[in-house]
Amino acid sequence: MLVKDYKKFLNLSKVINSSFGSEGPENNRFHTQSIKFDLLDDGMIKCRYLMVVNFSSDSMMREMRERYENEARAMITSAIKTVKEKYKEQFPDDDQPKFDLIESSVGHDVEFLTYSMYAGTRKAYYRFGCLIQVE
Predict the structure, then answer these.
(1) How far apart are CA 43 and CA 102, in angstroms?
(2) pTM above 0.70, yes or no
(3) Domains along the sequence of the chain with CATH
(4) Whole-angstrom distance, CA of residue 46 vs CA of residue 10
(5) Residues 6 or more apart in contact with residue 37 via CB below 8 angstroms
(6) CA Rg, the chain, in Å?
(7) Digit-coded pLDDT (tens) for 60-101
């Protein structure tokens, strides 16, 4: 980790921190979804999105993956917008950072939680991860 602009690094860490009782970008209205930002340095943020999904069959899950990905991207976009607003509110005199999702860093997968041939519904974790460049 090489930090070039320490003030920007500290300001970003204050805004996106979701530990130790501060709010962070996570929207607490959704109990089956979670977004976490990890500040790698003053120019890069690691984003992790987790959602609990339900489906009836493997083929349905494969069809729903596009919907899950679109929902993850929408939630991350909303979280970035919240980070921008909080940054502007807390540090109005500083240059406002720009956030760009790096498409080549996107990865997503599904991890089954319950899988039974006798149950009609299956549950799984849908994970979406990416890197966000900060300028």
Answers:
(1) 12
(2) yes
(3) 6-17+30-134 (3.30.980)
(4) 16
(5) 16, 18, 24, 25, 45, 46, 47, 48, 79, 83, 132
(6) 17
(7) 888 999 999 999 999 999 999 999 999 999 999 999 999 999
